[in-house]
Please model this.
Amino acid sequence: DVILFYSESKSVTIHPMQVFGVERISGDSAFPNSIIPNRNQYWIGAWVTPMADSITTIVNEIAQKMPNGELFVYQQYPEDESLETSIWRVVNAVFDVLQSRNIKYVQNTSAASLGQKVNYPVETLRKKQGICIETAVLFASVLERLGFGTFIVFVPGHAFVGWIHNVNEENFEDAAMFVETTMIGDNQWTFFDAVLEGISKYFDNAGKGYFDSGEAVIVPIQELRQFGIMPNNIP
Model:
């Protein structure tokens, strides 16, 4: 008798283990001679997947909400009185399109802790639920795809998103805007509500000195790309 072990062969892609926060790089620093310290939170950049098919679909929907179906980033629409108004228009549309996906926020007080499993944006969209870091990487994926200066903000027990809103300011707090991404899960909240909550969370933690002590961390996505932390290859 002949026993058939393989009837066909197929190529496969092996992705990194989906556990966030436990990776280690040997040596004094993961990024020698860089301004980025060796922090576990920076590996979240691999979960920000701007080129995933699901993000392309979302970006196409955002474009449909723009004047004449044209998507401008860091460019002023003729209808708007300022560049900042146009930037606000686009990020507002990001919030609205994601809110239309009815993604339920699942609270988790151990968010961003060691061993915390993080779903990719496509998984969050499919499951229609996510913890704070999952809604954050989803929102950040769209912002990065659009070309915004994007960052994820980690504070004790929570994570949310920020972006560069005023390109003419060098001071971070004057240039940045923040959004509480978990609020995409409830239609009673507007984008304005979510921004006010994001601002409040940032300045509350800054006022407590958490960014100075390292208990809170700002993760700049574009800088991570420069230092080799790239998106995982997720469709």
